[in-house]
């Protein structure tokens, strides 16, 4: 029998459990009589005389589950172990988080000894449960399941495996244990690429009291989370499920420092959380806090590819009275915003939503700079938009500012668009005065063959009537030979002759 040495769990001289590579039968220890000294003695006899009353381990109550797949060592017997790989036998009970089962008492591997004490497989990152070690538990198919990672423990909290409880805990007890482990680690999980998704789902299933505990862990870090590639999604979920009081705390946290909210809005990640926040803002106090934090950086936000979205959201969701200070800042920086690729779009929306004196202030700022805006690659769109609104008195004011410059603008790539818009939307009176100004210019024939001026002549022909149109037709006929030798003149002449048919 000594030639068939296999291993099991026995006790050494200190009454401490020792882990050996397992097979079918346990090894005899030197403290007992070997079979060569007493051939008639069996291992069963040895174990029957073995006393474990002096074991230093504090065993849990003996309400062990019979028939369990765990290999369970009790003071009186050893239950067969059929659920562990690599022949490892280890202590298990219905209470896996008994004070005895702590990382201070254990440190295990699959094989071997260290100083004749059991070695517990250690992880690089072991979650703690009130100071206890995270257990390694067997699967029903006999394979050893590795210690769950962060996603695993959140999965258990969410009720994995259809809510089954392989460890023998009740649903409430298991939920409490998972939640206790979640506490203190929420910020770490929120900034992890994979765990943040599971955390979002976990937050949906929390009770009001549980969510408040998580909220307290995150509220002081909300400004950093909002610009985090993964944390911003957690903040968005917080905003969706938090109470009005908690929402006010988030708003106050974002607005308490100068330009803090503006910096968040300039971030591609932060703007998502801010937009979600603005959708949930309901009280006047919350709106005032948000708008007061945004006003100092309104001009910067208007020109930013991310930040402009928050201004557009404020214009759509809040009243003109709420947005008054915001629009005043935009009006003061009108030219700077209008000549920006993103800003020109924002400025057009500001004009649409402004009311009363605030709107007039915006109009006056545009009229004042119309000469430069009309020939700007982006500013010309603002002038065209203003003309298309057909606000009483605006077209006349713009016409006064541009008087004597229409011929120059007609030959400009961007200014020609403004002149065409004048001819189409300013009314017959104003369009006639513009056409006459063009005809009185000694170089008017140049417009017939100009890359941009020929489009102005087309619009003038469409908008003119009576003697003004006759003068335009006469101009084309007198210069038809020159037009036929020019690419742009040829197209204009073809269009004119087709309209005459």
Automatic annotation (TrEMBL):
This is PUM-HD domain-containing protein. Keywords: Repeat, RNA-binding, Translation regulation. PANTHER family: PUMILIO HOMOLOG 15 (PTHR12537:SF63), RNA BINDING PROTEIN PUMILIO-RELATED (PTHR12537). One of its GO terms (molecular function) is mRNA binding. SMART domains: Pumilio. Residues 1-25 are annotated as: Disordered. Coiled coil: none annotated. The lineage of its organism: Eukaryota, Viridiplantae, Streptophyta, Embryophyta, Tracheophyta. The gene is LOC100795545.
